């Protein structure tokens, strides 16, 4: 176990270095949610329903969740699909390296990138739009477990979804479409109150909705609860659903993951 962890951490260092060598990927990954936050925060002004919460602050919480999901789900799924297509996975599977170390490396690297993403978005939200950081320990603890469960569940889902693209060329299109759709129905861009009930029900199946809801509880406080469909952040339910996605994602990975493209031995 110790050897697997050590090798996994070495893989994480390698994965992170390789990511930062891809200048286009670095710029897009970190700048895209920031650009959206600045645009939406600048276009939509004013308080929401007399809560004292601005539209920009509401978007801040949602885009932090979407940014973490993008790093953990989208980048991971596309990256693994590329590794599978160019033969990297097949070569690694034939080495003495424990297979689990590959996934440890991917998950830890995603954690590092997500931490950077969150820090950048928080800096923009605090300095440009007056988002207040938590002032009590309870909300900081909530931030940690929401991000940890959300990132882990999204990463495992990304690993499982990496099986869907037939090759590296189709990976971006296959993975990006559900990610973009989830953002629109999960309260990132459009308030739940503006969506038909059946779309709210669909969004409730997936982790992004609950991750964003948990983050709103951290950054918007008690006043923001009035903006939720139920008038409450439902944190126990947030923990339950994200925990179920963690377990379900692990099961999907264990039962469906392939080290080679379809049709290859």
From TrEMBL:
One of its GO terms (cellular component) is ATP-binding cassette (ABC) transporter complex. GO terms for molecular function: ABC-type transporter activity. Residues 24-260 form the ABC transmembrane type-2 domain. Keywords: Antibiotic resistance, Cell membrane, Membrane, Transmembrane, Transmembrane helix, Transport. It is found in: Cell membrane; Membrane. It comes from the Bacteria. It is a multi-pass membrane protein. One of its GO terms (biological process) is response to antibiotic. The chain crosses the membrane at residues 25-44, 56-82, 103-128, 140-161, 173-192, 238-257. InterPro entries: ABC2_TM (IPR013525), ABC2_TM_bact-type (IPR047817), ABC_2_transport (IPR000412), Nod_factor_ABC_transporter (IPR051784). Belongs to the ABC-2 integral membrane protein family. This is Transport permease protein. It comes from Herbidospora galbida.
């Amino acid at each position: 176990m110790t050897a697997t962890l050590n090798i996994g951490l070495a893989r994480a260092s390698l994965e992170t270095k390789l990511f930062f060598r891809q200048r286009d990927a670095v710029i897009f990954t970190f700048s895209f949610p920031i650009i959206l936050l600045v645009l939406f925060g600048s276009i939509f002004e004013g308080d929401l329903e007399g809560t004292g919460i601005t539209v920009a602050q509401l978007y801040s919480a949602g885009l932090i969740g979407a940014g973490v999901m993008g790093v953990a789900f989208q980048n991971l799924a596309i990256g693994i699909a590329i590794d599978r297509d160019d033969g990297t996975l097949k070569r690694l599977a034939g080495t003495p390296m424990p297979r689990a170390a590959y996934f440890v490396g991917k998950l830890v690297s995603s954690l590092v990138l997500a931490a950077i993403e969150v820090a950048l978005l928080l800096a923009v939200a605090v300095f440009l739009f007056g988002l207040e950081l938590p002032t009590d320990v309870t909300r900081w603890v909530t931030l940690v477990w929401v991000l940890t469960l959300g990132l882990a569940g999204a990463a495992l889902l990304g690993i499982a979804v990496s099986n869907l693209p037939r090759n590296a060329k189709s990976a971006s299109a296959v993975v990006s479409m559900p990610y973009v759709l989830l953002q629109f129905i999960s309260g990132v861009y459009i308030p739940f109150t503006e969506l038909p009930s059946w779309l709210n029900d669909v969004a409730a199946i997936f982790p992004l909705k609950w991750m964003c809801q948990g983050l709103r509880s951290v950054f918007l406080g008690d006043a923001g609860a009035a903006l939720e469909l139920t008038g409450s952040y439902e944190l126990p339910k947030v923990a339950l659903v994200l925990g179920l996605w963690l377990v379900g994602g692990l099961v999907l990975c264990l039962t469906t993951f392939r080290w080679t493209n379809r049709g290859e031995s």
